[in-house]
Write a structure and sequence with these properties.
Layout lengths: L11 H4 L3 H7 L4 E6 L2 E13 L27 E6 L3 E7 L8 E11 L1 H7 L13 H7 L19 E4 L9 E4 L17 E4 L19
Antiparallel strand pairs: 1-2, 1-6, 2-5, 2-8, 3-4, 4-5, 7-8
Length: 216
């Protein structure tokens, strides 16, 4: 169980900042997923920042669409998208209302409710792999599009909630290119916007973007 001081909810003001300030500050924070079978708590160890219309790697780069509406605020809400026709990925919306920005939750350590996460991640070889990657994280927490728009700063009965946790000291934070992002958005010199906890075994391996080949 998490110590009581760590369970203080993060205020909306935490997310109402530039995405590049919020992203590294999310490391060590606790995400709680409340399910009918009980809670699952996750300590965040890896994230990626996406700066909306200023960022060629962002879903919101070309402006507001029905898919990206949640990314335009208010801050502290959850943006969930479906990818490759198979997986869901979870983001937390950042920045002022009306300006798109979000942090992709890439990996974490399950610190409570591991038995529930294991039921959803039956292929995980050990508990360190339960949420090692954004799709695995969403699967372990039973997150899908039905949770898109959830307020993670709301009252305790919300299905997803962000808690203070234990922020990671700056000396333990690493940064580098975002995983699997194509073109300019994947350039680590221009966008070293993936942040992770140094030497943490739950952090996912870096993979550069590989273009998908067409058949025939």
């Amino acid at each position: 169980m998490i110590a009581l001081p760590d369970r203080t909810p993060l205020p909306r003001a935490f997310f109402d900042r530039p995405v590049l300030e919020v992203a590294p500050d999310l490391l060590g924070r606790i995400l709680v997923r409340t399910t009918p079978d009980g809670p699952i708590a996750l300590r965040l160890t890896e994230v990626e920042a996406y700066d909306g219309e200023n960022d060629p790697g962002s879903h919101a780069y070309r402006g507001r669409t029905p898919r990206t509406e949640v990314m335009f605020g208010p801050p502290g809400h959850v943006y969930v998208y479906f990818t490759y026709g198979m997986w869901h990925c979870m983001n937390l919306v950042c920045g002022p209302d009306g300006r798109a920005g979000a942090v992709l939750l890439r990996a974490g350590e399950v610190v409570e409710g591991a038995e529930l996460a294991r039921k959803r991640r039956v292929s995980a070889r050990n508990d360190k792999e339960l949420a090692k990657g954004p799709a695995r994280l969403a699967t372990a927490l039973d997150v899908d599009r039905s949770l898109d728009g959830t307020d993670a700063c709301a009252a305790a009965d919300t299905p997803l909630r962000m808690l203070t946790g234990a922020p990671v000291p700056a000396r333990q934070v690493r940064s580098g290119p975002r995983t699997g992002v194509a073109g300019e958005g994947g350039n680590g010199d221009l966008h070293p916007w993936r942040f992770w906890v140094a030497d943490d075994p739950t952090v996912s391996p870096y993979r550069a973007h590989v273009p998908r080949r067409r058949r025939g």
